[in-house]
Amino acid sequence: MRVGKFSVAAVVAAGALVLAACGGSGAGGGGATGTDEGATEATTAESTDAGGDTGAAAEGTIGVSMPTQTSERWIADGNAVKKGFEDLGYKVDLQFANDDIPTQSQQIDQMITSGVKLLVIGAIDGTALSGQLEAAAQAGIPVIAYDRLIRDSENVDFYVTFDNYKVGVQQATSLLVGLGVLNEDGSENADAKGPFNVELFAGSLDDNNAHFFWGGAIDTLQPYIDSGVIVVPSGQTTIEKAATLRWQQETAQKRMEDLLTSTYSGGDKVDGVLSPYDGISRGIITALQNAGYGTTIADGLPIVTGQDAEIASVKLIRDGVQFATIFKDTRKLANQAVVSGTAFLKGETPEANDTETYDNGVKVVPSYLLESDIVYAGNIQELLIDSGYWTEEQVASGVA
């Protein structure tokens, strides 16, 4: 099956709303209720160095609006941003909106009314905040979009995120490595034998990041689809067909079950699944295990990718159940929000390393992009444990 090439320009032109990956419990257990103490501590130390002055200049309150507490990463992000600003001497009003748009709007309204000096916003629905951002601009409050681009407003002053197109490239690369098409160093494996049956999952269509993830992944897979090394037996090769509303694990599990019933009941087998997020991955894995594919990759479970290095999925990777995930070190993201925010608070312009990519429909928002890493079983120790992101005990238990 052929999938149309999805370039960066097409991603931007898609004009999707914003909603980054949300969490949930997964195959093999593990909830999204923990916090990442290592992330908070590391961000605190880095932001103190990068933020500059910590004395009398640090006055006022920072408003931090995060979308949900149903994902361990958003809890860690909120706490890390809060701690980073507090270590510079600021007060912080941190609010979680529990995936409810009116709640987030009301919380931000209250922050503006109370006179915060800066807003850091991880939006649930970026197009629902135009009124709040207009009020912030009138009050002279700078706005930093945190990991989720806020769309359709000129009053977004800065964006901190990861290189989301590259994240998609890494997800597809890990799938190709798992199938044996590529080696871990990215080189071609001359001994690879296809065709491989692959199914594609995407994030929520109202999430700007989901389109970047998809674009990077499809651009990477396209040559192998064109050559017939990879086939998509279901024919569901567009982001509209592959999308997972609100990034929900249960929705992904149901779609995988439906695919198995509709496409693979005749004896064909799934070899791999492109998944853009660990919660979705755990839903996919549950469906495959329930369908008799085995409990681990060694006994027949297909290759499944992921994103966010959630602790439940990290344990699954170590146990040979999920093949890979993408590690976006949110300690660095929180630190960058603090660094950029501190520049605004000093009357300066934050450093941007991308001033072309992130068009929110009204303006190109100056951005700072961070790098991500592919996590396989063999580098969990180096990337996640040695760096202090997770402890050995957490990885062993799958619980934060």
TrEMBL record:
Signal sequence annotation: 1-27
InterPro entries cross-referenced by the UniProt entry: Bact_Solute-Bind_Prot2, ChvE-like, Peripla_BP_I, SBP_2_dom
Gene Ontology molecular functions: carbohydrate binding
Gene Ontology cellular component terms for the protein in this record: outer membrane-bounded periplasmic space
Assigned keywords, A-Z: Signal
Chief localization: other
Keyword Signal annotated: yes
Protein location: Cell envelope
Stretches assigned to the Periplasmic binding protein domain: 62-348
NADP listed as a keyword: no
Region described as Disordered: spans on this chain: 29-63
Composition skew (Low complexity), residue ranges: 34-61
CDD domains, A to Z: PBP1_ChvE
NCBIfam families, per the entry: ChvE (NF040907)
PANTHER family in the cross-refs: D-XYLOSE-BINDING PERIPLASMIC PROTEIN
Protein name: Monosaccharide ABC transporter substrate-binding protein (CUT2 family)
Naturally occurring in which organism (per UniProt): Salana multivorans
